[in-house]
Structures are given as C-alpha cells and as structure tokens.
Amino acid sequence: MKGILIIFFYSFSFVACSQQLSEADKQSRQKADNVAKSQLKEEIEGSTHIIFSVADKDFIILVENTGSYREYYIRSMDNGETRILKDTTLNLSGELAKRMFDKTIYRDDFITFDSDFFKPEYEASSGNITYFVMKDKHGKRYGEARLSIFIKPNPIDSAVYSYLVERLLYYAKSM
C-alpha cells in the first residue's frame, strides 16, 4: 500500500510541475503536425526537420538530408485544403545549417507567453502568432514555441529565427 501511495504522489507531482498547454497551443501543434504529415509524410519520416508557421496558415518546413536541405512553403487555404506552393533544395551555409539542426541550442519545454522563460515578463511582443519546432528523426521535439512574430527576448536562436521569418516573408510576398 505504501508503494502505491508513493507512486500516486510521484505522478501527481510530475503532473503539477509540467506546463499545461492551452487549447490554442495544442491546436497550433496539431495543425503543424497534420500539415507536415499530410503533405510530406515520406520526406519527414525518419528525418530531422523544422516546422515554422505564422497564424497556422503559412508554413516553412525544412528537412535535413545528407549534404543538402529541402525547404517547403505550404499554405493552408481558407477551404481547409493545404498546398505545397514552393519546394526548394537549399545549400545553407555551414554555420546556419549547423545551428538550425543543433538540438543543444533548443529548450526542451514548450515556450509560450506564460512560460518561466519570460518571468517576470517579456520586453516586447507584436504581430501574428508563430509556431516553431525542431523534430529529430525519432519525433522528439526541441525548441517548441508559440509566440508572436516579433518577440523580445526570443527563446529561438536569432540567426535561425531571422532566416525562417525572412523566408516566410519572401514566399508570402512572391505568391
């Protein structure tokens, strides 16, 4: 009986310490995963990849391949359909690519405006809501965040984040 009580209190304390995601956080995560799986199932399966979205509508998915990277720009249409609008093979600079796919630079927890990362508060926040995650070849999530497009401080590496925002703006403007 004593062992059961210890297990109960241990599991309760684990749940109490873990961050509770809002419905909007869960929806952004699910939308990103669904878009990636429905459009790029074969490309992302067993591959490390990054998903970045703005307003759960415009997505950049970067897939690490041997010696190169594939970048997809995907848009979720108003009718619920998703389309790959751009598919590009990239030769990213060594340092940027190394940083993007270096799981040690990312936090393990899901960062939102309510996270301890922003205690006591964030300095500035503006723009549409973004979602970011790097997933390794086993599906483990790194650096997961749902924040505004302009956030200070930013929990995501500035070079990585700048690249993704610039690419998304480029695609959105050219389509």
From TrEMBL:
Designated name of the protein: Lipoprotein
UniProt source species: Marivirga tractuosa (strain ATCC 23168 / DSM 4126 / NBRC 15989 / NCIMB 1408 / VKM B-1430 / H-43)
